[in-house]
Model the fold of this input.
Amino acid sequence: MRYLPLTPDDRRDMLRTIGAPDIDALFADVPAAARLDGPIAGLSHHMPEMLVERHLGRLAARNMTAGGGPFFVGAGAYKHHVPATVDHIIQRGEFLTSYTPYQPEIAQGTLQVLFEFQTQVARLTGMEVANASMYDGSTAMTEAVFMARRVTRRTKALVSSGVHPHYVNVLKTLTRFTDDDVVVRLPDFTPDDDLAELAAQVDGATSCVVVQNPNVFGHVADLAPLAAACHAAGALLIVVVTEVVSLGLVRSPGEMGADIVVGEGQSIGNGLNFGGPYLGLFACRERHVRQMPGRLCGETVDADGRRGFVLTLSTREQHIRREKATSNICTNSGLCALAFSVHLSLLGEAGLRQLAALNHARAVQLADRLGRIDGIEVVTRNFFNEFTLRLPGEARPVVRKLADRGVLGGVSLGRLYPGIRDLDRGLIVAVTETATDADFDAFEDAFDEVLA
Amino acid sequence: MTYTGNRGLQLEEPLLFEKGATDRCGVDLPSVPEVASRLGGLDRHRPIGLPGLSEPDTVRHYTRLSRQNYAIDMGIFPLGSCTMKHNPRLNEKLARLPGFADIHPLQPEATVQGALALIDELATWLKTLTNMPEVAMSPKAGAHGELCGMLAIRAAHDATGDSRKVVLVPESAHGTNPATAAFCGYAVENIPADARGRVDLAALEARLGPDVAAVMITNPNTCGLFEPDMIAIGAAVHAAGAFVYCDGANFNAIVGRVRPGDLGIDAMHINLHKTFSTPHGGGGPGSGPVVFSAALAPFAPLPFVRRVGDRYELVEEAQALASSDHDLSFGRMVAFHGQMGMFVRALSYILSHGADGLRQVAEDAVLNANYVLRSLEDVFTAPFAASGPCMHEALFSDDFLDGTGLSTLDFAKALIDEGFHPMTMYFPLVVHGAMLVEPTETESKASLDQLIGAMRSVATRMLAEAAETFKAAPHLAPRRRLDETAAARKPVLTWREPAGLAAAE
Done:
């Protein structure tokens, strides 16, 4: 077996050193009823590299890839071009095969990257501090609700109808057995926003209001009035961002008054990967940092007075605080954070602004074209790179028929909100810098055929 | 001191924010077409403060940083309970196939049949290796898997109107165990260990009662020992109406040789980033699928993959609620379907080994750990060595340093000067100054002999020489000992422009 260095002679010599007659003697503590005398039946035996590659290659070939044709799917995960440099850097063994930096003297590479990442995320979101990453946007949002409860000592969370329904479901799951009172709103078809209603509902029992911007329908809103209402009532405003490229063009949540910003960072540096691994972003105001979940990297000096970085404020964390920890998170998304940071360093502010402007302009162009097709209405007025269409009939079968014609045309609201009749004609369409004019033509043609 | 601060190949690197410029870009982007903005006036006008680097400078920045890290690619990484084994590059190659890496989680089912087939194939391996009937693939790491298991346990009790309040956790458990139990609304109580480093069965039986919802046990445990009473523990817990959660962090010791389902376990997470060698990446991403017994299977989370004839379905909320076998699911834990990138790597690793190779993995991992234990027990204090063989990791304490004024921390830092990543320090909490050494099966005998030689040499010198040298270690790493107290007292978590510069603007 190519990954196992011990030879039969090594094993024999080592058993002699140990003083054990055979390998079974080392498993003597296993109860007799649970001992197996050979390899588990019904499973294949070891395979050369070539055969493994052939088998998985066949499975991969059965999937329709985003890069293989016109592609307009978003709703929480986005297809962007990732420069080749990013993947080269994250495959360097010193990053790929290192561990959480528990020994900082020999992990300054990872730690400095995390410090730079935290700074990038804080600036991007308009906040003061950020952590070293969470699993994904949905779990980061849930952790933010718990953090708001700790900060305000209140339990009621108001959730906007514009928050991604999968995120809302994760929050519902994780608050099933806690004291949190989560008030969830369902969208109607033209959910420009429910921000005014939320602002009217905030009261002295509210710990936080959770909104997404741009929201799941693509709509972009001014959050400042809602932030003011939250702060007047002593509640926190949590803003969720699932398309971080938008922050190159849209006013940041911090500028609009957010107290905690969470997001899905996949869009920068990370591929679609069928949903994971992704990158949870978590940023907040400095005054709340001791209630934050997750790993934090901080600056310090070594014994010679030279600048260095360490994991810090670990008394919040499970390995010290155990059942009183701010979160149970341990492993996070370190390598995805590296990919994000490398891509954002390549872009810089000028590049990010141009990339975001390009996404927006292309989305406006496609929205204008699709809006001219008979029977299609563009529902979203203000948007970044994603908008919602109302089709003449149910959208879910349309998505399947578009796929049959080689076009991955978006996400139907029927899939995201099953069983809600009013929404089943909705289709969320995302446009990034990767879509070409030929893709637009193909999309339009396929639509014409399918709707005909 | 050199002019640059560099020392030969040891190169210092400033922060991105000290060398980049906000108007520099390392990516060529197409020009932006003129359109009427649809942002509704919400444009971002103020500077963001994100420096950019050219492509060559980006490569250099990160390459220089990478060289300040220790990594499994450079040498043995004997971090106990972390299973730092070789990461085969075949796995990286296959995870990057566009058919896996470039597909969207919300594409129509018919366009991702190969991806769903892969998830199902990995799920089948995990169920067979553990002899458990159900597996939840979506949890994103070990602690997330624990949460998944404990949520299922809570849901199962709630379904029968049983409001048990307490979860029992051994003192030696990972911190994630009590944190997870508390997250699910449970009070946590400790189970004591016996003198042999195992769960004290009599004490556990005495504490079991109608208020106990579950017992969380790590097996092999965090002292690197198999729990010989595991079947009896399971029987006692079940007789009291509670469930057994097993922390599977140490599955590498028994994979292919022992099936946790044969030990009476109800739920166990499997760290794909440990046992099945998906890379740790400096702190993730991980992946923590959870296997379930028949009693907990109906409560497993959504979504999941189901084979129907010759095609695969992704079962989400609507289908599950409408079904008779998954309508009790406790719900969704993540936005999409879990760590696909890790699934590909883990299946590649599993198929490469096969059932025979995985059995050899466990045997070699245990053999290597016992070799370390027996080669060092004459110098180091090995608290449980007299009770028999260890499993995949060897536990020492720093009692042998009594009277020297030195401790485990000093030993670890001295080991850094010898060119090793140290073992896990101060965990588990049940022995004084714990040193937990997990070599894994991918180390050769020569590699072990070098580590053993270095550990003996450092220990012997610590007992004989002046303490100051060791108090000041490491001497040869990119940084000397870092001041963690100062970092926590006045946290600096982001870079800010030096005050002088800001004032000049």
Q: What stands out?
A: The longest helix of chain B spans residues 340-376.
